[in-house]
Amino acid sequence: MLLLYTLAAIVGWSQVIQCLPTASGIPYATIRNFVTTDILNGDDGMPPSPDAPLSYGKPVLHVDTDGNAIEEHNGRLFYYNDQYYMFAEKWACGRFSFFLGNVTGGYPRNQNFPPGDYGGQCGIVIYTSPDLTTWKFETLVQPQGVKGSPTKPKLLYSSATGKYVLWLKAGNELGFTGGLYYLTADSPTGPWSNATVATGDHLAHDFDIAQGEDGSHYIVTDAFRGNFDPESAGGSLPMWDVWVQKLLPDLTGVVGTNDTTVQVMDTVDSQGIGVATIGGKWYITGGPTCGNCEVPIQYLSASSPLGPWSNEAGVISPDLKQGTIIAGRGCGGQNKGLNKLPTANGGEVVISAIWGYRTSPISLAWAGMVQHGDNSQAISSTYWYPLEFDEGGRVKEYTCAAEVQLPLVEQRQRKVPVMPSYQPDCRVRDNTTFVQTGLDFGEGPIRIPVFQRTDDLGPYAQDGPVMDAALVMTVQYEDGTQSSVSFPASDVSWAPTIVEVPLETGQPVKSLSLSTTATNGCYGVLAEPKKMQGSKYAVVDADGEDEAADAQVYVHVDGSDWTPW
Ligand SMILES: *[C@@H]1O[C@H](CO)[C@@H](O)[C@H](O)[C@H]1NC(C)=O
Ligand SMILES: *[C@@H]1O[C@H](CO)[C@@H](O)[C@H](O)[C@H]1NC(C)=O
Ligand SMILES: *[C@@H]1O[C@H](CO)[C@@H](O)[C@H](O)[C@H]1NC(C)=O
Ligand SMILES: *[C@@H]1O[C@H](CO)[C@@H](O)[C@H](O)[C@H]1NC(C)=O
After folding, report:
1. 468 Cβ inside 6 Å of ligand 4
2. Which InterPro entries does the record cross-reference, listed alphabetically (predicted)?
3. What residue's CA is closest to ligand 4, atom 6?
């Protein structure tokens, strides 16, 4: 909710108004979810499924203060100690997530690769920011004690113990409980303890947690019901039960008594749960079960976390089977939870985090819905939307806008720059070379984020866990000489991460090219709108040159990515 508050007369405020003219006078961050102009002319080497055609625009990637792509998969936002935190899943090690359901048509069954050195790192990544715009990488948490890759990080603070508590989900998709874990630490950036299974019933699958006015925390889960919908394709659609439960004061499990537990929905096709309380009301978001789809977002509301919960049609439990739709195709992804943050003048905002999975033409689609996107989502983006409400506290339909304004806490008496955004371009393949000419790289080294991506062969199969040949970066100098560096695939991350190319001759650089002899995927760069007139961004293959006239490759120069404050 964008609560609009009357401005308080405070010292320095006139300066803020001058820099940040919003209707409400509240400072804000401008976040780009999609590009309005595709500077790659529709060809980034990663065509989407025709059933998920990126109709809101090409997704953008953002970079952190080191120039590496921000991984915001299942990203969740928090505000503690006068700064913003983002916790998210890092997929940079070449993590894959194969489709769970049954597919007829002869794909080999779930293909897991042995642990290996596939490029980057995975785990839970933690970033901090003063303004939701400039994000600094803080640390990577690789919790001991969980099976598989941990997901859905939710940071809490227990005033009972004075500890930060990090909830995670790991594995156990179709368990009834036992799939949620917690870690504890004295600070949001750790060091974090080993993971312990959170105690109580119905603690499995998707979850979200909100803190009420009285300081108590409530968890909402959509745990497996134990049966599948026989009417669904392949009879493989799992049914869920949605529960709300009060957490123990130390936030390590649920209280578990009948007066602190409520079943909101029974045997439903509803998952991807989120919860938040704002303006005296409670909201749960969710949507139909869908393996990585552009899926509707629905909501329920209640005046208390323990209900009664209802949709806008007034249906309540136990008859409640679905919420009121607020985004017909989820703004191009699946909502992964709600993030409540403080704003200026004691206000609050709830932000939806929609994970837009990458898809390809061979992704599986049922009834026009891609049921599984790409096996790797390392370069996928999260789209951020602030919830808006009408006077009755009803959630308004999402705009799915390319660019949104997120209200900030009033802490910076200066302009917040628009977050620079980039398009990933994965077209470096055997016999296809990327060439950038006309950029001034100074004395070098050239610091450029690159990534790898092996090809999907289907929802259960991948063309190897790592590229089968190195990425070669070649610098041509004005005097005709050249130098090359070869990066083995095990040194190239799956999320755009800086590599350094030294300049050797002291000569001005004519061009930088990226090539490979790998045959099982692509290497990629980030593209940004052209700033250097006369430069040229192109890929070259046997058929000739394909120039993107409005693009240039993103090269990281310390401190230069941000509009000066
Ligand atoms: C955490 O787990 C690791 C691996 O299981 C174990 O070696 C270590 O002792 C544990 N640390 C603590 C503090 O329990
Ligand atoms: C997959 O199909 C098999 C055979 O039809 C069936 O026994 C199994 O329960 C199905 N699994 C799921 C998750 O639907
Ligand atoms: C809690 O609710 C369950 C299900 O309705 C019931 O079986 C049980 O007796 C209740 N427990 C208490 C202590 O009231
Ligand atoms: C690349 O070119 C070589 C030589 O012409 C050819 O043998 C090879 O099949 C080509 N590779 C691809 C992926 O087209």
Report:
1. no
2. Glyco_hydro_43, Glyco_hydro_beta-prop_sf
3. 431
* 454, part of any domain: yes
Mutating to test ligand 1, I would choose from 141, 142, 144, 147 the residue with most ligand atoms within 8 A of its C-beta, which is 144
Within this chain, do residues 197 and 141 fall inside the same structural domain, yes or no? yes
Q: What is the rounded distance in angstroms from the CA atom of residue 220 to the CA atom of residue 209?
A: 6
Q: Is 560 in the pocket of ligand 1 (CB under 6 A)?
A: no
Q: Walk across the sheet containing 271-278 and list its strands.
A: 271-278, 281-287, 297-302, 324-327
Positions of E strands within 416-496: 423-428, 433-437, 446-454, 456-458, 461-462, 471-477, 482-487
Q: Tell me, yes or no, whether 22 and 142 share the same domain.
A: yes
Inside any domain, residue 290? yes
Q: Which domain holds residue 399?
A: 3-33+64-100+122-407
445-462 tens-digit pLDDT:
999 999 999 999 988 889
8-12, 169-173, 349-353, 365-369: lowest mean pLDDT where?
Answer: 8-12
* Ligand with the closest atom to the CA of 468: 4
Residue of the nearest CA to atom 4 in ligand 4? 431
Structural domain tally of the chain?
A: 2
523 and 444 fall within a common domain: yes
Give the nearest ligand 2 atom to 235 CA. Answer: 14
Chain Cα centroid distance, residue 13: 34
**Residue 397 sits in the same domain as residue 431:** no
**Which atom of ligand 1 is nearest to 193's Cα?**
13
Q: Is 39 inside a domain boundary?
A: no
Whether 539 and 435 have beta carbons less than 8 Å apart is answered as: yes
- Average pLDDT for the chain: 90
Residue 7 sits in the same domain as residue 135: yes
Residue with the smallest CA separation from ligand 4 atom 13 is 430
Identify whether residues 287 and 394 lie together within a single domain.
yes
**498 alpha carbon – ligand 4 mean position (Å):** 29
Instruction: CATH number of the domain at 165, please.
Output: 2.115.10.20
102 lines ligand 2 (CB under 6 A): yes
d(CA 175, CA 182): 17
344 and 493 within one domain: no
pLDDT of residue 290: 82
